[in-house]
Specification:
280 residues, 8 strands, 2 domains, binds 1,4-dihydronicotinamide adenine dinucleotide, Rossmann fold, alpha/beta, globular, N-(1-d-carboxylethyl)-l-norvaline Dehydrogenase, domain 2
Length: 280
């Protein structure tokens, strides 16, 4: 990538995390979201950069340089000269499709989606050129998680796949390539764990705390409830619904009523201050 400019649409949990990492790697980053989100997004990135300085991974001038390379805006604006447009908005096909449809049809860079579960091939059809479209599925928190699933859609070209892998490497991450399939690899494997844990708690077999402690005792860094709180209960529900729908509504993949109840009550996990646990 020559110009080294990335537009990240959606400055929530994932967009801000990815934006901060890309800025540290030297990319100019434009984060697009509602103005009310700009402040929290900036604070998250400042905290990340501060942490990098404390750990000796960044000097003060690199910290300032990374922050200078990031801008926040409400509209996408002109994207000529941009290398990559990466979308990290709500997990909803309609919302993502609308956003890709609005991109300049003459755009010659790459377009990527951070979707956790939706069809990359289906989303590609709304982009200016499906051959220059791919999935770049980061994990939460993007500042810390090394792996990125690099997902090829039906029309993703070899050059696009190579450029996507290159971008992942340039920002210091490791690419794991996969073909388009509901939930890709990680969300497909993890889905039954979340849902079985929810059923066990819903059936009063175990408490949230004891189940987390037991699973963490097996060697998982976070139990399923702590992990759902980190991901966002709303995001996890949307992914559960999407995988359930796409894999033929198998009963074992049916979303749990507790997920819907918590979303209705806005108990969304860490980002709202309360989920399965309470956060200060
Ligand atoms: P989030 O809810 O934290 O942030 C989404 C942001 O998108 C919000 O700030 C919202 O204002 C913004 N947004 C919505 N529509 C927009 C539009 N048209 N233009 C600009 N901004 C818009 O969600 P999160 O967790 O960052 O998830 C985003 C995407 O990343 C989803 O597709 C999700 O499945 C995926 N993902 C989430 C992970 C997680 O653990 N939370 C992990 C990996 C992928």
């Amino acid at each position: 990538m020559n110009h080294r400019t990335v537009v990240v649409i959606g400055a929530g949990t994932m967009g801000s995390g990815i934006g901060g990492v890309a800025a540290v790697a030297g990319f100019s980053v434009q984060l697009v979201d509602r103005p009310t989100v700009h402040g929290p997004s900036r604070s998250r990135i400042e905290r990340f950069l501060e942490g990098q300085v404390k750990r000796g991974r960044l000097g003060a001038s690199e910290q300032a340089g990374a922050l200078r390379r990031i801008s926040w805006r409400e509209e996408i604006g002109r994207i000529d000269g941009v290398d990559l447009v990466l979308e990290a908005v709500v997990e909803d096909l309609g919302a993502k499709a609308e956003l890709f449809s609005a991109l300049d049809r003459g755009f010659s860079g790459l377009v990527a989606t951070n979707t956790s579960s939706l069809s990359v091939s289906a989303l590609a059809e709304f982009a200016p050129d499906p051959s220059r479209f791919l999935g770049l599925h980061f994990f939460n928190p993007p500042e810390r998680m090394a792996l990125v699933e690099v997902v090829s859609g039906a029309k993703t070209s070899k050059e696009t796949l190579a450029a996507g892998q290159n971008f992942v490497r340039q920002i210091g991450k490791e690419a794991a390539c996969t073909r388009d399939s509901p939930g890709f690899i990680v969300n497909r494997v993890a889905r039954p764990i979340y849902l079985e844990a929810l059923r066990l708690v819903g059936d009063k077999v175990a408490s949230v705390e004891s189940l987390d402690r037991l699973v963490e005792g097996l060697g998982f860094p976070l139990g399923p409830f702590r992990l759902m709180d980190l991901i966002g209960i709303d995001v996890n529900l949307a992914v559960s619904e999407s995988v359930y729908r796409q894999l033929g509504q198998e009963p074992r993949l049916r979303p749990h009523p507790l997920q819907r109840k918590m979303v209705a009550e806005r108990r969304l996990g860490r980002k709202s201050g309360e989920g399965f646990y309470t956060y200060a």
